[in-house]
Design a protein that fits this description.
6-stranded mixed sheet, alpha+beta, 6-stranded mixed beta barrel
Length: 893
Amino acid sequence: MSTLSVSNPQSPISSLQSLRIWGRFPRLTPLILALRNMRIRWMRTALTCLGIVLGVAVILAISITNDSTLKSIRNVFDEASGKANLLVQSSAPDSGGFEQTVVGRLASIEGVVAAAPSAQATTLLARDAEDWQTSLSLGGRAVGKSLTIFGVEADIDPQVRQYEIIDGRWIKGDSYEAVIPEKYATEKELKVGNDLVIISPAGTERIRIVGIIKNDGAGLLNDGAIAFVPLQAAQDMFDRGKDIDAIDIVMTKDIANDPNKLSAAKERVAARLGTKYEVSYPASRGSLVTQMLYTYQQGLSFFSVVAIFVGAFLIYNAFSMTVLERTRELGLLRTLGMTKMQTLTLVMAEAVILGIIGSIIGVGFGVVLARVLIILLGGVVSTTINTLSIPLDGLVNSLFVGGAVTIGSALLPAIQASQVSPLESLWVQAKRPNPRSQRKLFFFGVTLTLASWISLYYIPWPPSIAFNIGSLSTLTFLLGGVLIIPAVVESAERIVRPLVTKIFGNEGMLGSGNVRRSAARTSLTVASLMIGLSMVIANNSLADAFIGDITAWVETALGGDLYVRAPIPMRESFESQLAATAGVGGITKIRYFGAKVAPSVVPPESQDENNTLIFAGIDPLTYREVGEFQFAANQGDADSNWKRFSEGDSLFISTVVADRYKVKQGESLRLITPRGEHDFYIAAVAVDFTGQGFIVTGTYGDMKQWFGKTGVDRYTIKVAKGYSVKEVRQTIEDKYKKSRSISVETTEEFKKKVIDLSQESFRLFDVLGMIGIVVAALGVINTLMMNVIERQREIGGLRSLGLTRWQTTKMVLAEAATLGAIGGAFGLGLGYWLSQIFVSALNAMAGYDLQYVFVLSIFITGAFIALIVSQVAAIYPAWKAAGVNIVEAIKHE
C-alpha cells in the first residue's frame, strides 16, 4: 500500500494512507480521520458549524437579553434606593401620596437608623414646553422630554442615597434649589448658578442649580432626567401640602445583613403602620415594568427553542449527506477491518469537534446578537439598558444544548454509517425511500399534529405549567408537520414541475426531476424551509392581529379628532373654555392614576406579582359624544352596559384584568382606596391596551369620592361639522398653548405613535425569524451541494453531450426553485395554522382578546421569501455544477 499515490485528497486511498500513518495509534484513528474529513470538506464543515453557531447564539442572546433587561431596570431602582433596606408606600399608590407625619411613627421602631421621606412630580422645562409631545412606552403614556422633580429632606437623604457631587454643593434647608445629574446638565447645557425654569400648577417656577452629581445612584432615575430639591420646596411647587410618596428606611447592619431579621423588621413596620400602607423591599419599585416585560420574555424564550429545533435539521441534514458522500470510503474502511463501533466513533468524533467549535463561536456571536436585541427592547420600554449581564445558567444551557443537539442530530447518521457494507459502497447514490416507512411516518406525523392541536385548544392546563406545555405542544405540532412531508413530497414535485418547466425550459424538467431522486434529503430541506418560513408568517400575522386590534381600539375607544394634554394635570375648569372654542363639537375628560387590587381577591398564582392597575376616570355623560368602548364578546347590549356604569360604584375592566383576576361581567373587583377596600361592580369587560391592558375605567364621580382625585390628564375633542381638524387645532394652540403649556395632537398622529410602538415590539421577533430563514437557506445550500457531488458523473455526461454551462446552471436553479416552491407551500400552510396558535398563545399569556385575521399580503411576501431564498442559496452550488470538468467528472468515483 505504500507504493500507491493519488492526486485526489478525497479518495478512499487517501484514507488508507491516513490509516497507515496513524496505524500505531489505533484509538486516535477515528479522530484523525474526522479531522481530515472536516478539512477536506471544509464547505460542509463551515455550513454545519454555522447552524450550531446560530442555535447556540440565539439561546444565549435571549438569555442575556432577558437577564440584562431585568437587571438594568432593577439596578436603577436599587441604586436609587442606596442604603435603604425597606420602602414604605401607600397601599393605594397614586400621585396623592400620604401624610408626612407617618415618618415620626417609624422613629421608635427597633432597628430603624434613618427614615427618608420623598415626593415626586413630573414636569417640563419651560423652554421645552413650546413643542413638547407625549411619547408612548411599554407601560403606556410617557411625557416627552419629561423632568422628574424629586423632593427629599436635605439633611436626612444623604444617609440613604449616595450623591457624588462633582461640581457645586448639596441642597440646603427649604430653598428653591436643586442638584442635577451630569448627563442632564450636559444635554440641556446647564451649569451651577443657572435656573431650572419648570412648569408647575401655578404657571412656572425657578429653581437655582447649586450642584451637579455623577450619573449613578439616584441620578439614574428617569434615565437621568431628574432634579433633587428640598422636600418642602417640591411640596409647595406642586400643591402637595405635607404629602409624600415614599419613605426609604435604613435598618441597623445586623438586621440588614440577615434576611430573616430583615423580614421580621418588615413585618414590625407593617404592623405599626397598618393596612393603609405597604412595606416592601426597594427592588419592588421596578416590578410593574418587569411585569409588563413578561410576555416579551416568554416569547423570546419560545423562539430560542424553535431556533434550536430548526438548527437540528441543518445539522442532521449535513451529517446525513456526509455519510452518503463517504459511503464508498466507509465501505472500504470496513473491508480493511474497521469495526462498526469505530465507524460510529468516526462520525461522532466529527460531531463532537463541530459541537465544541460551534458552541464556542456561538457564545461570541450570542453576545453580539444580544446587544442588538437589547437595543430593540430598550426602544420598546423607553429605557436605556446599560447592563450586559451574561447569566451563568444561560451560558451553560446554551453550550449544553448546542453540544447535545449536535451529537443528537448526528447520532442517527452515525448509526447508518456504521451499517455500511462493502457491497453497498459500490453505489454512491441516494436510496429510494421505503413506501411503508413513509406511510408510518405520515400517520405518526398526523397523530402528533392532532394531539398537539388538542393539547393547545381543548385541554385547560394549570397556569403554572401552561407556558411549558404550550411550547412543547407547538414544537410537537411542528415536528408532526415535518414527518408528513416525506410521504407527499413526490406528489408535490409533480404538481410544481409544469410551472418550473415553463420558467426554466427543458432544464427545469431535469432539475425538478432531480428532487424526487433524493426524496429523503429533499424532505429535510423542505422541512427547514417550511419551519423558517412558517415562523416568519406566524410572527407577522400575530403582529398584524395585534396592530389591527390596537388600531381599532384607538379609533373606537379613544375616538375624537384632537387630544389636549399637559405635562401636569389640567384643571377641570379648562373644559368649559375649550368647549367654548369655535369648532369644538364635543369634549370629554379623562384622568389616570394608580390603584391596587386588594390582596384578598388576588388569585394564588398572582400573589407574588405587582397588582397595581391604572385607573382611568371618565365622565360617562360626555364620553359617548366623542368615543365608544370596544366591548369584548358576549358582553350584552352597549347601552345597558353604559347605563349600569353611569350609576356609579362600577367599572369597565380590560380583558387582561378579567383574565388575571378571574372575574367577569356582573361580578365585582375589590380595589384599595384611601377610604379602605371597596368592591366595584363590573359593568362590562372591554378591549383596552393602555398600560399593556392593566387598566380599569371608572366614573369621574367615583374617582373623586373613593380616591380623592381631581384634575385632567387628557381632553378628547370632536370637531364640529363645517370645521377642519387643522383649523380647530390651530385655534386652540393660538389661545392656550403658551399660557397653559398644552400639547394638541390629532388622532392620526397619536395612532401613528401607537402603531409605531406596536411594530417596534415585534422587531425583536423579526430578527429571530430571519435567523430561521438563514438556517433554512443553509439547508438548501447543503442539499444542492450534495446533489451536485452525487451526480458529478451524470453532469459530466450531460456536458459531454452538449449541455452548456448556462443550461447546467439553470438545471440547478430549477431544482432549487422546486425545493423553494414545495417548502414555500408547506410553510404557507403551516404558517396559517401556526399564526392562529400564536394569537391564541398571546391571548392566554397576556389576557388579550385578539382575533386572527387572514392577511393575503403576508402570505404573498412569504411565498416570495421562499423562492428568493432558494434561488440565492443555489447560486454557489449552481456555479460549482457549471464548473465541473467533463473529463474529471466522467471518471469521478
